[in-house]
Design goal:
This protein is of the alpha/beta class. It is 35% helix and 14% strand. The protein has helices at residues 11-22, 36-47, 61-75, 87-90, 93-101, 128-132, 148-160, 173-177, 198-210, 221-224, 228-238, 269-277, 327-336, 344-353, 369-379, 392-400, 421-431, 443-447, 453-458, 474-483, 520-523, 538-547, 581-586, and strands at residues 26-29, 54-57, 79-83, 106-112, 138-142, 166-172, 214-218, 242-244, 280-284, 302-307, 321-324, 385-388, 409-410, 437-442, 464-469, 528-532, 552-557. A six-stranded parallel sheet has the order 2-1-3-4-6-5, sandwiched between helices. The protein has a six-stranded parallel sheet with strand order 13-12-14-15-17-16, sandwiched between helices. Helix 15 (369-379) crosses helix 22. The chain is globular, with a radius of gyration of 25 Å.
Length: 587
């Protein structure tokens, strides 16, 4: 639409014209002075009955950013977040960095002070382009409205092209208000496409066939490329077991006989055993993260790597064979050939290890957190979109939920962002409202963006939220107990001013509720809350919550002393993996 005083569209009008043309359905955000023209334009269009993206008002910009991530991860489309200048933009720093670490296709649109005020230390001015440069795939400062359209279109293309990631578009307020008279065309890019090197691909396939104990380490690129089905066909053709990294969970169905689970510090027994004993590791669409590529990871093994990002080749682990290409091109080439392989003895060994997938756990007087995830997996038939925060609950979720499909696992990997879960679950629901969304969170992580419960109830989002409540920042507590003498002062969430300052006890009976999660239904109307403390009632309460129609929060009091196992200690090798509490106690 055009401004009534001008035959040309304003920057604000142009922005929504472009978003509509690009098929943007949802924007997550918060308002502020530097983006008022955008919100005015949006509201005018809504009143005229014109098609516009749905704007979801989150209660804090960081929540909006994580919601955009959740939307992108669940749907495969670009997630969009909108915030004002200054603190609005800086509050987006964490979700931008989170999306950058996990290669999530997102566009973050921020307002900026008028172009003539840039550099004057104006009210709510901050150098958004400057501070987001190292944490984004690319960024733009729109000072002239005539640059707005091409920059927006290029931002969306870049967010999805190649290795996906976050792109920031910072728009000066005067560029939002000024009519666009002479729009500029996009600059020509001169980065040539890397040609597919069939000889390198064939060398990798030959090595895979010749190996006695090959393993595929599939990364998040499998999900981004939509290559999960091709990966499964490839694994079956070459009889090679597959371990999926944290960001690739769901790429291979849990029950597939060649599936090993997640590798790394808290990886599964079969995944870590197989990587330990492998003579060839083929990494597909994933970096060699330090939580997976632990000490001496590549020692005595051949390493092959296929990735669309050339900067990842030989960055941390030296490869013997590599190919810079899209996974789609690699699988198309491999599956079109007549090559195949057989590794029956190796698969038999892997099959024996799979009996510990996932690792068995005990029972006791208190609810085991593994049992919560196990029951939710069974009650949802492994079909829910599963979202987590960050901490122990996240690792138990990764280990014990029986994933069946890509894009059902929504969690913060590379950055490990506490507070990610609740807003990301909101975005995931908008990304796939036809699928049930289950949030498993910890009491510490949940509180970091607890304000987004208002977004949940205001929009009647039927999230099923399960907080594994152990009154601790559990993962840090586990490290403190294992390596730092059990000092719990800064990790005990039940601590008050009248506690013994020297208390280091892990007391199961100390359950001060700060906050009282059961009471949140009084704070957020239309939110249902339940609590379960007894192991014998766990399944009953979980089933009750899942059957309720609206948003439900379940406060699950779990065993405070439970640790995440298996575990490879920092600086350790795969062969030093701790598998049981008895070994942990001796360590």
């Amino acid at each position: 639409m055009k401004d009534s005083s001008s035959p040309y569209p304003t920057g604000a009008a142009l922005l929504f014209d472009v978003l509509r043309d690009l098929g943007v359905e949802v924007i997550f955000g918060h308002t502020g002075g530097a983006v008022i023209p955008l919100h005015v334009e949006l509201n005018k269009r809504m009143r005229r009955g014109e098609p516009v993206p749905r704007f979801v008002l989150c209660r804090q910009e960081g929540g909006a950013g994580h919601a955009a991530e959740g939307y992108a991860r669940a749907s495969g489309r670009v997630g969009v977040a909108l915030a004002t200048s200054g603190p609005g933009a800086t509050n987006l720093a964490t979700p931008i960095a989170d999306a950058h670490k996990d290669s999530v296709p997102t566009v973050f649109i921020t307002g900026q002070v008028p172009s003539h005020a840039i550099g004057s230390d104006a009210f709510q001015e901050v150098d958004t382009v400057g501070f987001t440069r190292p944490i984004s795939k690319h960024n733009y400062l729109v000072r002239d409205v005539n640059d707005l359209e091409w920059m927006l279109r290029e931002a969306f293309a870049l967010a999805q092209h190649g290795r996906p990631g976050p792109v920031v578009v910072d728009i000066c307020k005067d560029a939002q208000l000024t009519p666009c008279v002479t729009p500029r065309v996009a600059r020509r890019r001169h980065r040539p496409e890397i040609p597919f090197e069939a000889a390198r691909a064939d060398a990798i396939l030959e090595a895979l066939s010749a190996a006695e104990r090959p393993v595929i380490k599939a990364g998040g690129g499998i999900i981004h490329a939509g290559a999960a089905a091709a990966l499964c066909r490839f694994a079956e053709r070459f009889e090679v077991p597959v371990t999926t990294t944290f960001n690739a969970l769901g790429a291979v169905p849990f029950d597939a006989p060649y599936y090993l689970g997640m590798p790394g510090m808290h990886g599964s027994v079969p995944a870590n055993y197989a990587l330990r004993d492998a003579d060839l590791i083929l990494s597909l669409g994933g970096r060699f993260d330090d939580r997976v590529a632990v000490k001496d990871f590549a020692l005595g093994k051949r390493i092959a790597h296929v990735d669309i990002d050339p900067s990842e080749i030989d960055k941390t682990i030296k490869t013997d064979l590599h190919l810079v290409a899209s996974l789609t091109a690699f699988f198309d080439h491999a599956l079109a050939s007549t090559r195949q392989a057989r590794h029956p003895r190796w698969l038999q060994q892997v099959g024996e290890w799979r009996q510990q997938l996932p690792l068995p756990y005990g029972s006791g007087d208190y609810i085991k957190p593994q049992a919560v995830v196990d029951a939710l997996s069974e009650l949802t038939a492994g079909a829910a979109t599963l979202v987590t925060g960050v901490g122990q609950h996240q690792m138990w979720s990764a280990q014990y939920y029986r994933f069946q499909r890509p894009r059902q696992w929504i969690s913060s990997g590379g950055l490990g962002t506490m507070g990610f879960g609740l807003p990301a679950a909101i975005g995931a629901w908008y990304g796939h409202p036809d699928r049930p969304v289950v949030l498993i969170d910890g009491d510490g992580s949940f509180q970091m963006n607890i304000q987004e419960l208002a977004t949940v109830v205001a929009n009647a989002i039927p999230l099923k939220m399960f907080v594994l409540n152990n009154s601790f920042l559990g993962m840090v507590r586990q490290w403190e107990d294992m390596m730092d003498g059990g000092h719990h002062y800064e990790t005990c969430l039940a601590r008050r001013h009248d506690c013994d300052p020297d208390c280091m006890a892990l007391d199961q009976t100390c359950r001060r509720q700060i906050p009282n999660l059961l009471g949140l239904k009084q704070v957020y109307p239309r939110l249902e809350t339940l609590r379960v403390k007894e192991p014998g009632r766990l399944r009953e309460v979980l089933a009750q919550a899942l059957a309720m129609p609206g948003p439900v929060l379940v406060d699950v009091w779990v065993d405070k002393a439970e640790d995440v196992l298996p575990m490879v200690l920092p600086g350790g090798r795969l062969e030093t993996m701790i598998e049981s509490a008895d070994v942990l106690a001796r360590a």
